[in-house]
């Protein structure tokens, strides 16, 4: 599962807020909601967030293995 917990930590450390993401950078409120619920985002959106927050992808998302992911490929 992809978790966006790092995004919230990065956002807290930055001078940006969800308000500025929406109103200054035109990130949709639906995207903010998707981040809150750990729903999929496009790589374009992740790229935009990295640019705005001056961070790498690890500042936005992390992979969290699930029990069902542990089986052979």
Features:
single chain, Cro/C1-type_HTH, two-stranded antiparallel sheet, 4 helices, 73 residues, 47% helix, 434 Repressor (Amino-terminal Domain), mainly alpha, globular
In spatial order, strands of the major sheet run: 1-2
Order of helices and strands: EHHHHE
> Helical region count?
4
The percent of residues in helical segments reads: 40-55%
CATH class (first level) name: Mainly Alpha
Computed CA radius of gyration, to the nearest angstrom: 13 Å
- Provide the β-strand percentage band: 5-15%
By DSSP, the count of extended strands is 2
Describe the main β-sheet briefly: 2 strands, antiparallel
- Globally, the shape reads globular
Distance between the termini: 16 Å
Mean pLDDT: 94
CATH topology-level fold name? 434 Repressor (Amino-terminal Domain)
**CATH architecture classification name:** Orthogonal Bundle
Tally of discrete structural domains = 1
Low-confidence stretches: none
Helix-and-strand structural type: mainly alpha
